[in-house]
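Here is one chain, start to finish.
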Amino acid sequence: MSFTRQLSEMSASELNDAIDDTNFPQAHILSRGRNNSVCSTSSTSGTSSLADRPLAQPEESSAIGIVGTPTEEVAPVALPTAPAPLTSSQRPRLILKTNGSSPDSDGTQPKTPMTPRTSTTPGHEKCTFHHDLELDHKPPTREALLPDMARSYRLLLGGLGENPDRQGLIKTPERAAKAMLYFTKGYDQSLEDVLNGAVFDEDHDEMVVVKDIEMFSMCEHHLVPFYGKVSIGYLPCNKILGLSKLARIVEIFSRRLQVQERLTKQIAVAVTQAVQPAGVAVVVEGVHMCMVMRGVQKINSKTVTSTMMGAFRDDPKTREEFLNLVNSK
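Its structure:
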């Protein structure tokens, strides 16, 4: 009788006794793999080997005439779950750069400086101007700009079809560069330097008005001048400012590339910072050469802008008194 016929004629119990588990360590795994009650393939969580699971001792199945084991309970495999949605406190915060800090800051977010460079930044140790809203950085000296500016003016003259080497234009590039530096000297001036301690304690709370302060500035849109007069009024709160300092404040902000609307507000804010008055009013009347020499060419047009703060904005009678004083001859 062949070995195959002997196996076919053996009962299930005899077949189990004939199998030596020590010689066939994978016998249980193969038999479990044929058992429909236990899946040996991958589940929804991925393919896993049944060889890594603890195996029960083989038992004779009374229902099936082959080697097998009764169904054993398999621990359910945890399925991956979708990540929980982020709450508002966990979401990335949008940090906005406003006046050197971020709004709604709880102290945990780093603050953003008003300007990216300071006097401690390598290569900027000698820089004196880092915190102006319109000019982030200046070189150590303004004279250091003259060679580059002069070359630029020389190229400009050549672009206009002129000969920069003719007698009348030989020194024009240098002169123009020095003039432009003078027109914009306000970039190198600060409120603290101009005030120079000229703030005095005085028991005075009536209106102080200095009017018709001459003003010269440069239009930032066309780099041509605009000029006019400035009138400033403020209501002191036990502090007064030297009268000449009001004119100096006008110089700080007018000697820059400007628009009249911004110039008016900057003057009012500077007076407020200087003496913390109950109110500040500024009226600027200007003639813009970009309207006179080009464009619409309206020679007699004037632009009037005003900024009212504190009592001048809230009290109509105070505002009316100031405007009457300014308009009086």
